[in-house]
From TrEMBL:
Annotated catalytic residues: 328
UniProt-annotated binding residues for substrate: 298, 302, 329, 356
Lineage of the species this protein comes from: Bacteria, Pseudomonadati, Bacteroidota, Flavobacteriia, Flavobacteriales
Species this protein is from: Pukyongia salina
Binding site for pyridoxal 5'-phosphate: 218, 356
Gene: lysA
Domain Orn/DAP/Arg decarboxylase 2 C-terminal: 18-354
Catalytic activity: meso-2,6-diaminopimelate + H(+) = L-lysine + CO2
PANTHER family linked to this entry: DIAMINOPIMELATE DECARBOXYLASE (PTHR43727), GROUP IV DECARBOXYLASE (PTHR43727:SF2)
Keyword Lyase: yes
UniProt subunit comment: Homodimer.
Transmembrane intervals: none
Protein name as catalogued: Diaminopimelate decarboxylase
Class in the EC hierarchy, top level: lyase
NCBIfam families in the record: lysA (TIGR01048)
GO biological process, one term: lysine biosynthetic process via diaminopimelate
Length: 401
């Protein structure tokens, strides 16, 4: 989408809003597929938590993606999108046994990440195929909040507990049909990922009836031109080669699975907000938009540096700005950022706003959550309306005093 198209969307629907471009999602999906043409069976499960709008799920499913879910509600959203249970994998952490049993009864692939649940589940449902989430203890993440493979991480069953896993499997007679890892976001070093994969292959040798190995996700996407990103093509070639070798020694063709969120939708999304005021202080120039961390929390939560462009004045002379919102709490989007000259009323575009942006939005300060627009084949479609005052009060029970 070009700046004119983005502006036309704001003009039509008002702001602030999220716009997602299906062409970008498709290009990313194809890229991943092509990187792994070397393996016979590839399965891509889209991580629903990144962007869970039903129309987005439907679109990605139309490309061939299954869904990776982390809650029973995400499972329901995927079903609502018309995706068959057998194309959904459920990878919860710290949820109740009841929720896992509920998901299993729907028929989705269960992925278990702790010994206690593994034992309970295997004892009660030995016939239900289960995938095991392994923690290989390899650090592959960027921000400490999003790297989940380290020793203190709450995710996965430690690779050092493999003997215990095997004992549970033998005692219960349960069927382990998949081995999984997800070491966190922002993999830069392919060698580190391949090293973690070796640990997974070693673990896989201990299970006779596997159908798939799931390598999770963590593909790093660029946040601006020239930014480093995971070299998916090189990664695909190397891992495919190693995977085929493994399948040969294992004696069976397994499915290679991934569950990318960011990689598929991050760059497809832009968040558009209007500049309410330009405020010169003694130290900087603030551009304050009609939004805040209620709509886009990643800069405050993870220190994410979303590229910001002034689509109302793209050719303006660049100046330095601190971009903040209207929340009554610090809500800095960017400090000391070079942006084409900003005037009050201009529309700013926050890039890489497809993943973990709308899904993390809230009503803090009693503001409405924005609308979501899908840009498909040169046309805009509302896929979620902006909230209204009714949405803020509909669940409240009001007492009289
Ligand atoms: C969040 C998550 C993903 C997606 O991670 P991205 O960095 O968005 O690709 C994949 N698998 C699991 C289990 C997750 O929790």
């Amino acid at each position: 989408m070009n700046d004119q198209e983005l502006l036309s969307v704001v003009q039509e629907y008002g702001g602030p809003l999220y716009v997602y471009d299906t062409a970008v999602m498709q290009a990313q999906y194809k890229r991943l597929q092509q990187a792994f043409t070397g393996v016979n069976k590839l399965r891509v499960h889209y991580a629903v938590k990144a962007l869970s709008n039903i129309s987005v799920l439907k679109y990605l499913h139309s490309l061939g993606a299954g869904m990776d879910t982390v809650s029973i509600q995400e499972v329901r959203l995927a079903l609502e999108a018309g995706i068959p249970a057998e194309e959904i994998i459920y990878t919860p952490n710290g949820v109740s046994m009841e929720e896992i049993e509920k998901a299993a009864s729907i028929g989705v692939q269960i992925n278990i990440d702790n010994l206690s649940v593994l034992e309970q589940f295997g004892t009660k449902h030995p016939k239900t195929p289960v995938c095991i989430r392994i923690n290989p203890h390899v650090m592959a993440g960027g921000n400490t909040n999003i790297s989940v493979g380290h020793i203190d991480s709450k995710f996965g069953i430690s690779i050092h507990q493999l003997p215990h896993i095997k004992r549970i499997v033998e005692n219960t007679g349960m069927w382990i049909n998949g081995i999984h890892m997800h070491t966190g976001s922002d993999i830069l070093d392919i060698e580190v990922f391949l090293y973690a994969s070796e640990i997974l292959f070693k673990a896989a040798e201990h299970f006779e009836d596997l159908e798939f190995i799931d390598f999770g996700s963590g593909f790093k996407v660029p946040y601006r031109e020239g930014d480093i990103e995971t070299n998916v093509e090189e990664f695909g070639e190397k891992l495919s080669h190693r995977f085929n070798e493994f399948c040969q020694s294992y004696g069976r063709d397994l499915t290679l699975a991934f569950e990318p969120g960011k990689f598929l939708v991050s760059q497809a999304g832009k968040f558009l907000a209007k500049v309410n005021v330009v405020k010169q202080t003694t130290s900087t120039v603030f551009a304050q938009v009609d939004s805040g961390f209620n709509h886009l929390i990643r800069p405050m939560l993870y220190g994410s540096q979303h590229y910001i462009s002034n689509i109302s004045n793209p050719d303006g002379r660049e100046r330095f700005y601190s971009v903040t919102g209207y929340i009554c709490e610090t809500d800095t989007f960017a400090n000391n950022r070079r942006i084409a000259e900003i005037r009050e009323g201009d529309i700013l575009a926050f890039h890489n706003a497809g993943a973990y942006c709308f899904t993390m939005a809230s009503n803090y300060n009693s503001r409405y959550r924005p609308a979501e627009i899908l840009w498909h084949k040169g046309k805009s479609h509302v896929i979620r309306e902006r909230e209204t005052f009714d949405d803020l009060i509909v669940k409240q029970k009001v007492l009289e005093f």
